[in-house]
Here is the input.
Amino acid sequence: MPRVAVVYLEAGGGHRAAAHALADAIRLQGRDWTLDLLNLDLELQSIDPLYRLTGIHGYELYNWTLRHGWTIGSAQQIRMLHAMVWALYPLQVQVWRKRWRELRPDLVLSVSPHFNRAMYSSLAVEQPGTPYVTLFTDLADYPPHFWVEDLEQHCICATDRAADQAASAKGGRIWRTSGMVIHPRFHESITKDRAQGRRELGLDPHLPTGLVLFGGYGSSRMMEIATRAAQSHSASRPVQMIFLCGRNRKLADRLRKLTLPYPVAIREFTNDVAGFMALSDFLIGKPGPGSISEALAMRLPVIVESNLRTLAQERYNVQWIRERGVGVVIPSFKSLAGALDQILDPGIRGEMLRRINRMQNRAVFEVPDILERILEERPDVLAGAGVSTRSMPRSG
Here is the structure.
């Protein structure tokens, strides 16, 4: 049976989510593959200077800045990261060569940006001819050296913009999907009664409901959203909110202490984001590619902020939302009242929903088909039977 190594980052949570979404989709499809899920941060831990000095992983620092909303200057931070990646390139190649010798994968799938050159180069030396595939977990690349490298690799892209950027590389092949990879649960029919679900959260079953979501680590920006919504709340524009704070208990506790004039439900980390989206009418958050794609799959228009705090790699997402007319983009959450007016207006909302309903994102089921087509070029690999999916411990 084919052995596929999937490499992901912990930073932000989206890369890990994509890796596990694909693993679950492959399992659901009953494919006879062995999957090795590799956490890049742990794989490179032995050569990570920050971890060796402080015991803190780089992704922990990154997620901490997201949690506090300290994202101004993200473009400069990316350049600093790339300088470090380049300086450590020879050591990365050594680590990955050892790892490929241990695993002997038939295909490597990366859902990680920044580090693809070392992974590709080490695989090319250790196992010449083994396919290397990069799956973009962004709607577009943020060049240089973010997703696209001049390598003989396969690139799987969710948008025409990303595909055009990948085409600028000297080598490789491009595969286009119908959208971003999101977990299969966002494609499932949810049968639970919506009104009853809202009642169980202590909400009004009939009020327009916003879901406030900033990824798996939350953000202090959610406090401003709560208070801005309170300032704009009125009998003529009633609304209620669900706040998903992720792994950010302090934020959840701060929100619970607020006295708000509208019904509210506050939850910490959950694996049932799809269930909460099913109870909601729209999403408020940052323009992250994963949360946007999940919301649209659940037929929710979005409200996002675009300013200096917007992560550099997510700035195209704002343009994408505007071009497709599937949400409201505001310069800051000071303008939340106007955004709520738009997204709750029956005419505007109806047109957004018509556009959203035309979208049919099946990427999580399309990517395994693409990988199988790549593997078919090596027919000896497809022989065998049995299924095994596992997360691999880091190498020593």
User: Anything to note?
Assistant: The CA atoms of residues 292 and 302 lie 7 Å apart. DSSP finds 17 helices and 13 strands in the chain. Confidence is low (pLDDT under 50) at residues 383-396. The chain has two domains: 3-182+361-391, 191-357.
